[in-house]
Amino acid sequence: MVHPLVTGVATGIGLLTDKYMLGATNFVEHYAEDFHATDAQKDFVKSAMYGGAILGMIVMGPLSDIIGRRAGLILCSIITLLGALLSTFAWGENVLIAARIVTGIGMGGEYPLASSHSAESSETSDGARNVALLYLFGSGGGQALCPLVTYIMDVSGVPPNLLWRWIFGIGSILSAFGLVLRWLTTKDSEKFVASKKAEAEHKENTLSLLKPYWRPLLGTAGSWCLYDIVEYGLKQNDAAIFDAGSDAPYSQSVLDVFLTRLLVIPSLIAAPWLLTRISSKRVQIIGFVGCALCNLVLATAYGPLKEITALFFTLYIVQLSFQSLPGVTTMAISAEIYPSMVRGTGAGISAACGKLGATIGSYFFTELKNQELIATIFWMVVATSVLAMLLTLVAIPFYNGHTLDAADMLARDGKPDQAVKVLFSGPLNHDGSKAGGYYSDDLETEDESDA
């Protein structure tokens, strides 16, 4: 029997590779001097992977509802490996852009598949916590690993024309390791197998099951889109943000990025625990409000703050810590609230909208960075965070594990309209009655978790 830790690594290795490969474009444009890329080509290199990711999410999410999560995860690893290898050996700017699109297709499928598989594999109602742990492994590990690898090679004197290829080369190794691990260890969850049997009995199609879920779909897709505008818009450009107006070598900016990724890990560690105490909806609201307030300070006082390096760095870490909370919840909520038989589709649509936001944020934030309008970037983050908070209030349900179980059973019985009503009815007790507080007796059992 495969140890749960090994299974968790096999599920999350794709997200770790994704975050690593996304972070690579933060540095590659600086080191790939042999390409002589135009500003437009640099922008496309950054955004190409997002375009591929959108396609991957739209295709791989629904496909996994048909072929299974295991087959889908293995297919994602194969596509990612091909893209990573092509990126490593790219012989021109346009080839690198094409390689990033291929990588994006594989990476895009990771989000709905890994999160859905992780949530469905939970033996209790701790789906959100499981997804948070997955996010910790992928986002925390991958985002810290890329600047660390880059910094070590830079200070070791690796020539720039080889350094950027080795950045992608490490990504290829991670992809290959993930493919082998998934082939040997992963399997479809019992919940997924049961949902496929129910689907065959009731002969429900995807559209009829998802149509009543228009409101939560608006909430998960919209909030993920707005979050990724912030997440990727900032993280594709923060090396330049730290470097702006500085006389220090570029390696110092890379080190600053690594430290920001490292110091935000405590908030990612806290997220799984927080999701067992507070609902995902509330955690998401806290994250967006905190992000908006921190960036308001950064936007209004960017000039003076940039001169006080320690204070600027601290504020940036605080805002990244708040930012990590909706990073967890946008993925967790999308992986939980849809019926198991169409969960890959619902999560895939939401994730695709997220990557649409990532494309928008990466492109326009880069344009603002090129014009040295750094304070304007922070103003954009404030506006986006406020809008995301409002959308969360309106369109994301407030639920617990019993609510999810009751809604999923109704959907399996061919009653998706009633399932949505239950989903928005609030937290439930074991017997289906409404809970008095968040739980009727303040966390009735140790197994219960706030979804």
Plain-language structure description:
There is one protein chain. By secondary structure, the chain is mainly alpha-helical. It has one domain: Growth Hormone, Chain: A (Up-down Bundle). Helices cover 79% and strands 0% of the residues. It has helices at 4-31, 39-67, 69-88, 93-120, 127-155, 160-185, 190-202, 206-210, 214-235, 238-243, 250-263, 265-274, 280-300, 302-307, 309-336, 343-370, 374-395, 401-412, 416-423. Helix 5 (127-155) packs antiparallel against helix 6 (160-185). The longest helix has 29 residues, at 39-67. Residues 437-451 have low confidence and may be disordered. This is Glycerophosphoinositol permease 1 (Glycerophosphodiester transporter GIT1).
Strand-helix topology:
Layout (H helix, E strand, L loop, with lengths): L3 H28 L7 H29 L1 H20 L4 H28 L6 H29 L4 H26 L4 H13 L3 H5 L3 H22 L2 H6 L6 H14 L1 H10 L5 H21 L1 H6 L1 H28 L6 H28 L3 H22 L5 H12 L3 H8 L28
Helix pairs in contact: 1-2, 1-4, 1-5, 1-6, 2-3, 2-4, 2-16, 3-4, 3-6, 4-5, 4-15, 4-16, 5-6, 5-11, 5-12, 5-15, 9-15, 9-16, 9-17, 11-15, 12-15, 13-15, 13-17, 15-16, 18-19
Task: Write a compact overview of the structure shown.
The chain has helices at 4-31, 39-67, 69-88, 93-120, 127-155, 160-185, 190-202, 206-210, 214-235, 238-243, 250-263, 265-274, 280-300, 302-307, 309-336, 343-370, 374-395, 401-412, 416-423. The chain is an all-alpha fold and 451 residues long. Keywords: Membrane, Transmembrane, Transmembrane helix.
